[in-house]
Amino acid sequence: MRVTAVRTFICNCYRTNWVFVKVETDSGLHGWGEATLEHREQTVAQAVRELERYLVGQDPHNIEKFFHDNYRDAYWRGGPVLMSALAGVEIALWDIKGKDLGVPVYQLLGGKCRDRIPCYANGWFAPAKTPAEFAAKARDTVAAGYRGLKWDPFGSAWQNITKQELQQAYDCIQAVVEAVGAEIDILIEGHGRFNIPTAVRIGRMLEDFDIFWFEEPIPPDNLEGLAEVKRRIRVPLAAGERLYSRYDYRDFFRLGCADYVQPDVSHAGGIAEVRKIGAMAEAYHLPCCPHNPIGPVANAAGLQLAACMPNFTVLETMSTDVPHRREVSTESVQIAEGEMLIPDRPGLGVEIIEEALAAHPYQPANLRHYNGRLTEIRPSDAEALGSQPE
């Protein structure tokens, strides 16, 4: 079997655009990957196409060789564009290998540790603005079966936060906690917003709530600063979505930056690289909780990783998304009692419907985190993913 082509498809999904990667072979088998790099989708799609010349004519089963050689030959190593492009292709190669051998990808990684995985909801809040609106959305999401809720309650704050903004965040968290009860996990997102003293101030405020974690409290460029925040507060920290390889994670672990580790399979080089990062975390007795807020192929890859990582703890999932997510993919998400079931289909277990993609062409979208439109990430007709039929 030899690779004959690598193709990319960009599909608008309202807040960003999914970037799907298809690797084709002369046997008729193909694999799907995802390289969605939010707000730089055309850039990463071109980076994927530049990898094609290294793959055509090669055996798609040699996944480790593909990754090693292309990481080495890139010369300008690391970073989100290269690592996301490598991830998109690498995920597709695992899909081919699993299909060819007739087994799920997790079987190729040592077999599964579990049949189902805890997951928490992201995106559930759109388009809430007030504490009462967040509370109503939270009740609906918990009623749909989710046992964990993540959101950013900090409006358009950047670096510093006023007393009024801090009180508004407090009121929002309190409203959600009161609406859903103490048994639901609360995860607070920081989106890398704050400077160190502000992050510490917020972390100490969050001690009033039994939160699961405070995520990415400061920008990702300062690991020493993140470790300092962790030392100065008593709530758990999560971070790592904007680190792109095991080499980036080396100092992260050495400095003791966070309690929960969040590599993103579509940005950190793909399935094998995240598996290696998870193994590094295991050596530090840290739980691995993959960052996973994008499309159906990335979610499928995350499920395969979660199945086989002993120190996996919880997987992020978008509880609602654009209705055409069902039209452009065969994704079938099953959530039972707040847990997502691990599929047993060969490969990743999901296909992209190419002919459906043309109806949703690329549209540029800017980041909404700091302009007061943070919760406007879903259209009014967004649908719950957990209710998809088999």
Would you mind describing this structure in some detail?
The chain is an alpha/beta fold and 390 residues long. It folds into two domains: 3-103, Enolase-like, N-terminal domain (Enolase-like, domain 1), CATH 3.30.390.10; 107-384, TIM Barrel (Alpha-Beta Barrel), CATH 3.20.20.120. The chain contains 13 helices and 14 strands. The strands form four sheets. The protein has a five-stranded parallel β-sheet with strand order 5-6-7-8-9. It starts with a strand and ends in a 6-residue tail after the last strand.
Number of strands: 14
Strand content: 15-25%
Which ranges are low-confidence, i.e. pLDDT below 50, for 5 or more consecutive residues?
A: none
CATH class of the largest domain: Alpha Beta
Any chance you could write out the topology, listing elements then pairs?
Layout: E1 3-12, E2 17-25, E3 30-34, H1 41-55, H2 63-73, H3 80-101, H4 105-108, E4 116-122, H5 131-143, E5 148-151, H6 163-180, E6 185-189, H7 196-206, E7 213-215, H8 223-232, E8 237-239, H9 246-255, E9 260-261, H10 271-283, H11 296-308, E10 315-318, E11 320-321, H12 325-328, E12 335-336, E13 339-341, H13 354-357, E14 383-384
Keywords:
390 residues; alpha/beta; Enolase-like, domain 1; TIM Barrel; four-stranded mixed sheet; 13 helices
Q: In a few lines, what is going on in this structure?
A:
The protein is an alpha/beta fold. The chain has helices spanning 41-55, 63-73, 80-101, 105-108, 131-143, 163-180, 196-206, 223-232, 246-255, 271-283, 296-308, 325-328, 354-357, and strands at 3-12, 17-25, 30-34, 116-122, 148-151, 185-189, 213-215, 237-239, 260-261, 315-318, 320-321, 335-336, 339-341, 383-384.
